[in-house]
Amino acid sequence: MNDLSPKERILRTFKKESTDRAPVICPGGMMNSAIVEVMNKTGHKLPEGHQDGKIMAEIAIDVHENTGFENFGIPFCMTVEAEVLGSEINYGNLSCEPKIQKEAFDSVSDVKFKELGAMEKNHRVNSIIEATHSLSKKYPDVPVIGSLTGPISTSASIVDLISFLKELRKKADDAHKVVDYASSHIIELAKLMIENGANVISIADPTATGEILGPKMFKEYAVRYLNKVVDAIHAMNTPVIVHICGKMNAVKKYMPQIKSDAISTDSLVNLKMLKEEYPDLTTMGNLSTFLLEFGDEEKIANQTDRLVRDGINIISPACGLSTSTPLKNIASMTKVVKES
């Protein structure tokens, strides 16, 4: 079994089949692994790579070859869905990821709903699709992970954030329409990725945390619409990772209700305990990205080894990876997993 390809290894992990060891990955999107050191080393750089499919693919290859992560993870930001649905984007620079410059609407009641089909007409989406297709054809043994922004975070990126969070309660009917609308377009983007070679879809929904939403709203909105997206992706015979940010105490009981093939968590969460409490969960994570950026190689190796010994199913950074993370620190992490 030691000759498993990275793609075989992760797909077997999702199916709860035996493997030689845990995969070690970084799925893109919120966990963008296009660090400055790699881009300066290779000459393939952002922000140009956000708009150009060839450069995007080259950066994904550079990351895979230099860091030891066993996947390609694209795109390298969390603004694509919001841009298609009308928000203004600042594309950032080499060291700063794209951000929402201005949300398209002030209230959930103001949202103008675009017809499905908007994704495939968007230039940036087509760059992602071009990169996905190129990577999947050139490297058939390496999983291409298409990274999506979750329904709550996408909605909060097209409607003013403070208004949106208040209106989840005050204007629940309109809020549900908006989150459902965002979910449908997210599904469309997933479909385009899968049709062009993505083997896995990863969804990060950082606004959908227990601290921000509270248990009631988490169940009413986050679980419901994450599952809408997950169900649609499963209907396309593709596995799904869902990342939940922040502390999990208030919403931990809902984790088994999320239908994804793996749950990724922040470093604040004790994954060993989560795994013991919910043994059917496939766990992913959760090496501190603060440690990866500022720690030393020995401590990173020790913490990674602990995750491996704890039986965490997929080893990855815990959350958003800083673009200034030293390459040697990431290499220390991936080396430990591969030698386990």
Q: Short summary of the structure?
A:
The protein has 340 residues and is an alpha/beta fold.
Walkthrough of the structure:
It is a single chain. The protein is of the alpha/beta class and 340 residues long. The protein has one domain: TIM Barrel (Alpha-Beta Barrel). The chain is 47% helix and 11% strand. It contains 14 helices and nine strands. It has helices at residues 6-14, 36-42, 48-51, 53-67, 80-84, 123-138, 151-158, 161-170, 172-195, 210-234, 271-277, 289-294, 297-309, 327-338; strands at residues 72-74, 88-90, 99-102, 144-149, 200-204, 240-244, 262-265, 283-287, 314-317. The protein has a seven-stranded parallel beta sheet with strand order 1-4-5-6-7-8-9. Helix 10 (210-234) links the parallel strand 5 and strand 6 (240-244). Helix 4 (53-67) packs across helix 6 and helix 7 crosses helix 8 (161-170). The longest helix is centred in the middle third of the chain and has 25 residues, at 210-234. The radius of gyration is 19 Å and the shape is globular. GO terms for molecular function: metal ion binding; methyltransferase activity; uroporphyrinogen decarboxylase activity. Its EC number is 4.1.1.37. Its cofactor is Zn(2+).
